[in-house]
Structures are given as C-alpha cells and as structure tokens.
C-alpha cells in the first residue's frame, strides 16, 4: 500500500492531446491516476489544424477520465517568439487556476512547461516534477532544428541548458525515460545531491495493444490489399529529423532484394507526398509502399499486417534519453523489431527480450546480416511478453507516478 494521500495536481504539456503523443503518452496515465484518487487539471496546446471532431473526442475522454482539461491555442510562428508567447499564456492560466484553488504539485512534461513549473515553485511554493522526456535542447540541435552557428539559436541553446540545470536542482522529482539517461544525470551529481530520479519509459496500454492473432493479421492484410505471403515491414510515427528515414528506406531496399513483393507500411501523419518522394530517391517503387495516417485506436489494426517493426534513430547524445513509443507498441503487439544501438535503452531491451535485432552499422552488409538474424529468430512469446511488460507496462508507469505524487507534503483540501 503506497503511503500518503491523493493530491491535487496541475499537469502542464506543450504537446496537444489531439496529437498522437498526447493520446498515447499523457491521457492514459492521467486517467489511471484519477482512478487512484488524484484530482488532475490539464493544460495543453492544441494545433489549429486538428478537427472539431478530434477535439470533441478528447474532451469526452477527459470527462470520462475525470480530468479537468484547459486547452490553449498552439502558435508556430514566428519561431521561438511564438513558443515564449505560449509559455506566457500557460503561466497566466496556471497561476489563475492556482489562486482559485491551490495545487499540491505541478507535473511538467518537458522543458517549456518546466519554465512555468519552476516559476510556480518560486512564486507560490508549489513543488514541481521535471518529467524531462529527454535532453530537449540537445535534441533540437541534433535534429537540425537549432543551428548553433546562428547566434540566436546559440543563445537560446545556452538559455535552456542553464534552465535545465535549475530544473534538475529545484524539482521535487525528476523523471527520466531511460536508465541510460538516469546514468548521465547521476554522473552529473544527481540523486545523491539533488531530487530523486525515477525511470518511467514511454509505456503502452497492453489491453489496447494486444498480441496480433493470425486472424487479425489476415484481416489487416486484406483491408490493406497486401498479399498473404508478402513480407511486411512497418514504421510508426514522425518522419524525418532524427529519424533516419534514408537508412530505413535503404534497409527496406535490401529486404526487396529478398522478396520483390515486400511492402513497407508507414503509419504516419506526415505528408504522404514527402514520404513517397523520399522513397523514390532511394530507388523504391511507389507500389511497394503503403502510407496511412492513423488515430491511436487504428494503429494496432494497421500494424497487425506487419512481420516486423523497423526504426532507426540518430545515435547522438540527446537520444540516450529517448524511449521510442513505437518500440513498446511493437513489442506489446508481439511484432519483432529491427533497430539501431546507442538510442536510450533500445539495445538492452532487445537483448533481454530476444524480440528483435540490432543492426551493427548503416550499410548493406549490416542490413543483410540483420535480416538473416530476423529470419532465424525463434519467437519466445512468454519471454517477449514478460520483458515488454517489465519495461513498458502502463500500470507500472502509473504506479510510479502515483508514488511520486503521494510523496509530496500534506495535501490541500
């Protein structure tokens, strides 16, 4: 039995709840935490292109989950200034809600919301959780979003690295997505000399992402027009930036050399024309690709068609703290994975579970070896499932957040 009473929590997210990550990596946790008795108020930023139907669906999900949702409008332009404007709007709303009825804790998802969380602590004495989600400022550099040769971006990078130090020093708790990220923080003097660091990866609802049955695979292939005997590789999520799309396409090209009927199923909301153009540049015919956008509920139905999941991510410093959501979803579906090393805990998870293959390098010979290993992979479903649950089970993630919330001092009434 976890000690401590339920808390009144303000959850701050710059990600929208109508975005895929909001639906998969925020709302399921918050709904679980409200069932533990916590009173959750959520502020998020919603993109103008999301439909009224999508917003209504999220609003109903929040009502059903007992979450008090306050959506704000997301602004994209001008760069940087629009983000600072959004942060200011978040601060105004957060402080107004706190004055109306005080919060016990502010839970900040990543760096921009943590600017508000830190201010809430300093202004009102409210503890905050720095749920860092990775080394965000370094991700912007590694992903080519911030070019440090530009003095403006260099100054912004220095600003956020300084704020990062303050978040790490003043947070009530720090949440890292990976053990590798936690080790980096400990090497900097965390935990023993600062707030406790808890590892909570990007978790998966194992009920929603249940193991693929032969019947579901047959139905998915029928709906997508894929031959029953074709080899199907699947990719989920954003396309570009630190996701190594060229290398993934080259990997699939090696797959095509073995099976000319192979299909690359790309489940993404990114523009289809861009994905098709990238494939053509790598010599892959359009009829070998299927590109589909999908809601969270539709993802398991589509991925059921796959023989394996594929993702390569830039092996850079910032990605040591990355927990790819797609990995937990593939493993929960019991779809084996092909991935690269030096990304968060990807390699140790695949070694422990035996549920996939790690490529040695980004070249044809390494891709061929990985496919050889994949073809001889002997499924040990019990082992796969146990490892997937140990790393990615949603209920375990909720347990850990619940413990953090209850560790705060006396609750408000």
List the helices and strands and how they pair.
Layout: E1 8-13, H1 20-25, H2 27-35, E2 39-46, H3 52-65, E3 67-73, H4 81-100, E4 105-109, H5 111-124, E5 128-131, H6 136-142, H7 151-170, E6 173-176, H8 179-187, E7 197-199, H9 214-224, E8 232-236, H10 245-258, E9 263-267, H11 272-281, E10 289-292, H12 299-303, E11 308-311, H13 325-332, E12 337-340, H14 346-353, E13 356-359, H15 364-375, H16 381-392, H17 394-406
Helix pairs in contact: 2-3, 2-17, 4-5, 5-7, 10-15
Question: Would you mind describing this structure in some detail?
Answer:
The chain has helices spanning 20-25, 27-35, 52-65, 81-100, 111-124, 136-142, 151-170, 179-187, 214-224, 245-258, 272-281, 299-303, 325-332, 346-353, 364-375, 381-392, 394-406; strands spanning 8-13, 39-46, 67-73, 105-109, 128-131, 173-176, 197-199, 232-236, 263-267, 289-292, 308-311, 337-340, 356-359. The model has no long low-confidence stretch (mean pLDDT 94). It is 46% helix and 15% strand. It contains 17 helices and 13 strands. The chain has 2 domains: 8-203 and 393-406, Rossmann fold, CATH 3.40.50.2000; 214-392, Rossmann fold. Helix 2 runs parallel beside helix 3, helix 5 (111-124) packs across helix 7 and helix 10 (245-258) crosses helix 15 (364-375).
């Amino acid at each position: 039995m976890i000690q401590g009473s339920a808390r009144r929590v303000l959850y701050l997210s710059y990600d929208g709840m109508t975005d895929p990550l909001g639906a998969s990596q925020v709302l399921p946790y918050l709904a679980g935490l409200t069932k533990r008795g916590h009173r959750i108020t959520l502020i998020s930023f919603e993109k103008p292109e999301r439909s009224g139907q999508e917003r209504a669906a999220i609003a109903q999900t929040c009502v059903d989950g007992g979450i008090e949702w306050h959506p704000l409008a997301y602004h994209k332009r001008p760069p940087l200034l629009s983000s600072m404007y959004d942060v200011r709007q978040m601060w105004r709303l957060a402080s107004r809600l706190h004055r109306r009825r005080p919060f016990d804790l502010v839970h900040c998802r990543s760096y921009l919301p943590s600017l508000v969380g830190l201010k809430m602590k300093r202004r009102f004495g409210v503890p905050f959780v720095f749920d860092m989600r990775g080394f965000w400022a370094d991700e912007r550099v590694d992903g080519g979003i911030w070019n440090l040769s530009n003095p403006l971006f260099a100054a912004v990078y220095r600003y956020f690295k300084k704020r990062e130090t303050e978040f790490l020093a003043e947070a009530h708790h720090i949440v890292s997505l990976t053990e590798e990220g936690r080790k980096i923080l400990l090497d900097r003097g965390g935990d023993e000399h600062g707030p406790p660091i808890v590892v909570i990866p990007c978790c998966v609802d194992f009920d929603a992402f249940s193991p693929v049955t032969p019947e579901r695979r047959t139905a998915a292939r029928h709906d997508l027009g894929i031959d029953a005997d074709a080899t199907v590789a699947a990719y989920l999520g954003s396309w570009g930036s630190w996701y190594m799309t060229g290398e993934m396409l080259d990997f699939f090209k090696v797959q095509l050399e073995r099976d000319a009927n192979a299909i690359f199923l790309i489940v993404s909301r990114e523009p289809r024309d861009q994905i098709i153009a990238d494939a053509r540049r790598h010599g892959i015919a359009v009829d070998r690709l299927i590109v589909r956008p999908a809601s969270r509920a539709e993802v398991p139905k589509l991925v059921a068609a796959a023989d394996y999941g594929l993702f390569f991510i830039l092996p850079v410093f910032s990605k040591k703290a990355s927990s790819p959501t797609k990995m937990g979803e593939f493993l929960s579906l019991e779809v084996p994975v092909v991935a690269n090393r030096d990304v968060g805990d990807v390699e140790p998870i695949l070694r422990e579970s035996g549920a996939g293959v790690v490529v040695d390098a980004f070249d044809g010979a390494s891709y061929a070896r990985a496919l050889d290993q994949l073809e001889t992979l002997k499924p040990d479903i019990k082992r796969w499932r146990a490892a997937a649950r140990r790393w990615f089970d949603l209920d375990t993630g909720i347990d850990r957040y619940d413990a953090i919330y209850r560790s705060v001092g006396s609750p408000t009434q």
